[in-house]
């Protein structure tokens, strides 16, 4: 598959909407303690809703696109070898059933569902669904990035205009970096107007692709966090690269990702943070 058609894109969005309505929203603000479990750390959690949504969406995708390889965050958490299938697959779906699980589990609406369709190691469709709002961000290569409202109305997205470092707003999850790197970065963020983290890639990419925030530095390259978001951000006019200058691709496993409004801004942020 070289491209995702309008019809397939609409079907994928309908699948995500149906799964959210059946598996996610009924559990929102109805989570019990026994439905939450820790993964790698006390604040890295998974809920029954994550597991059910990933399973049902994966089943829908397998029925819609026979032979597609499913790479889901929760499945990889249980079996890390599944991630290697992304490099080998002709066609794969990368799923984050609930991005922002911490928010979801604590009753705040800052979460989303992320789906990337990857062909030959390249993202050919990125979709982020926001179940509480009922809307989407979507992108396909060369076709721009779009906000699709719950009623179907579409508006093209654009990243922030370039601006001086001292006027930039950005995302940096300092708590996720190793202590020594955190100590290096912490004083350097004071060069910007505001730096924060929302603990949710789905919402951070929403702010970046719509121009509300200028840049984002990410500690890891998990494909369920970035495969869809980078495509959406790039199609909105942005620039993304690892700190070592490698173009982002979903199969990258190591490095730090920096996204900015354009290449000149990217270089300015990189220099201000002085990281590599």
Write the layout of secondary structure elements.
Blueprint: H1 6-24, E1 36-41, E2 44-47, H2 48-64, E3 69-72, H3 73-78, H4 85-88, E4 91-99, H5 101-105, E5 112-119, E6 122-130, E7 135-139, E8 145-148, E9 154-156, E10 169-171, H6 179-188, E11 194-196, H7 201-209, E12 215-218, H8 223-235, E13 239-242, E14 257-260, H9 263-273
Parallel strand pairs: 3-4, 10-11, 10-12
Antiparallel strand pairs: 1-2, 4-5, 5-6, 6-7, 7-8, 8-9, 12-14, 13-14
Mean pLDDT metric: 93
CATH superfamily of the largest domain: Fructose-1,6-Bisphosphatase, subunit A, domain 1
Multimer state: single chain
- Please indicate the count of domains: 2
- As residue ranges, the low-confidence spans are none
Helix content: 25-40%
Strand order of the largest sheet: 3-4-5-6-7-8-9
Determine the N-to-C terminus distance.
36 Å
Structure, explained:
The protein is α+β, with helices and mostly antiparallel strands. The chain has 2 domains: 6-156, Fructose-1,6-Bisphosphatase, Chain A, domain 1 (2-Layer Sandwich), CATH 3.30.540; 165-273, D-Maltodextrin-Binding Protein, domain 2. The protein is 34% helix and 25% strand. The protein has helices spanning 6-24, 48-64, 73-78, 85-88, 101-105, 179-188, 201-209, 223-235, 263-273, and strands spanning 36-41, 44-47, 69-72, 91-99, 112-119, 122-130, 135-139, 145-148, 154-156, 169-171, 194-196, 215-218, 239-242, 257-260.
């Amino acid at each position: 598959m070289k491209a995702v058609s309008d019809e397939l894109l609409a079907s994928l969005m309908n699948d995500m909407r149906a799964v959210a309505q059946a598996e996610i929203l009924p559990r929102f603000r109805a989570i019990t303690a026994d439905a939450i479990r820790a993964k790698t750390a006390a604040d890295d959690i998974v809920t029954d809703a994550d597991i059910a949504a990933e399973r049902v969406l994966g089943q829908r995708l397998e029925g819609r696109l026979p032979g597609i390889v499913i790479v889901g965050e929760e499945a990889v958490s249980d079996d890390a070898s599944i991630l290697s299938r992304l490099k080998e697959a002709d066609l794969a779906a990368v799923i984050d059933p609930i991005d922002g699980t911490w928010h979801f589990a604590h009753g705040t609406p800052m979460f989303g569902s992320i789906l990337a369709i990857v062909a030959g190691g390249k993202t050919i469709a990125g979709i982020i669904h926001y179940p509480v709002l009922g809307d989407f961000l979507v992108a396909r290569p060369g076709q721009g990035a779009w906000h699709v409202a719950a009623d179907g109305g579409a508006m093209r997205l654009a990243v922030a205009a370039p601006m001086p470092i001292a006027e930039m707003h950005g995302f940096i999850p300092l708590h996720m970096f190793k202590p020594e790197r955190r100590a290096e970065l912490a004083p350097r963020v004071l060069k910007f107007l505001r730096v924060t983290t929302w603990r949710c890639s789905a919402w951070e990419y929403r702010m970046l692709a719509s121009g509300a925030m200028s840049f984002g530095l990410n500690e890891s390259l998990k494909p369920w966090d970035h495969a869809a978001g980078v495509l959406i951000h790039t199609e909105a006019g942005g620039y993304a690269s690892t700190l070592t200058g490698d173009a982002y691709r979903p199969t990258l496993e190591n490095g730090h990702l920096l996204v900015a409004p354009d290449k000149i801004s990217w270089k300015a942020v990189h220099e201000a943070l002085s990281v590599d």
